[in-house]
Amino acid sequence: MFGIGGGELVFIMFVVLLLFGSDKIPEIARTMGKAMAQLKNATNDIKHEIQKGAEENGLDTKSLSEMTGGINSQINKVKEDLLGDSVVQATKIKEDIEDIAGPVKRSR
To answer: Transmembrane region positions (predicted)?
Structure first.
């Protein structure tokens, strides 16, 4: 959870207990829970509005996934082409070095 371990979480809870006292912690937790629920509802409303607007403009999730799938496949193709070229170049350079100096052996 956010890169926080068990010991760190206990320490944070201890500091919160010292700062606010045991009588205020339930009220703070309740307020934070309500705020998180409101935030979740707001993000869900925004997501639904975006989806509704996209559907009104003729963009449904299927066509969007097809578009992104095509883009991703093109990106992957370019990556493979570039990687393949660099491997070929590295192999050629290695062979040229071995031709000049002979195979390089590590001494132990």
So the answer is: 6-22
Burial readout 31-59 (b: 16 or more C-beta within 10 A, e: otherwise) = eeeeeeeeeeeeeeeeeeeeeeeeeeeee
The amino acid occupying position 88 is: V
Q: Around Cβ 86, how many Cβ atoms within 10 Å?
A: 10
Confidence of residue 41 (pLDDT cuts 50, 70, 90): very high
Amino acid symbol at 73: S
C-beta separation of 90 from 98 below 8 A: no
End-to-end CA distance of the chain: 46
Q: What is the DSSP letter of 36?
A: H
CB distance 25 to 17 below 8 Å: yes
